[in-house]
Amino acid sequence: MAADFNNLVNECSFTTARSSGSGGQHVNKVETKVTLLFNILNSQTLTEKQKIVINEKLKNRINKDGILQLTSETERSQPKNRKAVIDKFITLIERALQPVKKRKATKPSAASIKKRLERKKQLSEKKSIRRGTIEG
């Protein structure tokens, strides 16, 4: 699967821009912010099923043209930000393609049932005391 990620990274395009944050005047002169652009629909590496899954799970990060856009500007150098944005991209794709485990239905244990009934009984007694008994 690692080779697949290398192919995915090769399909990405990168742009740079001036970054905000630490660095003093250096920040105003050097383009350290890196933006990764990945066109999901035009990917040769991903299967159609994978494209559908990624589009569904990452829909809040994908623009109307079907391009996944990630940025990194935490580091003070462009190569470090490039590596950071690639790591972020790989992590996102791995998580999106991970199959969701089906929940196995289980029955409550005897102890949990007993505990729930005890709690209900306590609450019932507390409320009856608050109400007061009206006789007659």
| CATH architecture annotation name | 2-Layer Sandwich
The name of the CATH topology is Double Stranded RNA Binding Domain
The profile of the biggest β sheet is: 3 strands, antiparallel
Radius of gyration: 27 Å
Global outline: elongated
Q: Give unreliable regions as ranges.
A: none
Task: State the secondary-structure class.
Answer: alpha+beta
User: What are the secondary-structure elements, in order, as H or E?
Assistant: HEHEHEHH
How much of the residues is beta strand, in percent? 5-15%
CATH class (first level) name:
Alpha Beta
Give the total of domains. 1
Number of strand elements? 3
Q: Output the strand order for the largest sheet.
A: 1-2-3
Task: Give the terminus-to-terminus CA distance.
Answer: 79 Å
Mean pLDDT: 88
What would you say this structure looks like, in words?
The chain is of the alpha+beta class. The chain has one domain: Double Stranded RNA Binding Domain, CATH 3.30.160. Helices cover 48% and strands 13% of the residues. It has five helices and three strands, in the order αβαβαβαα. A three-stranded antiparallel β-sheet has the order 1-2-3, covered by helices on one side. The chain is elongated, with a radius of gyration of 27 Å.
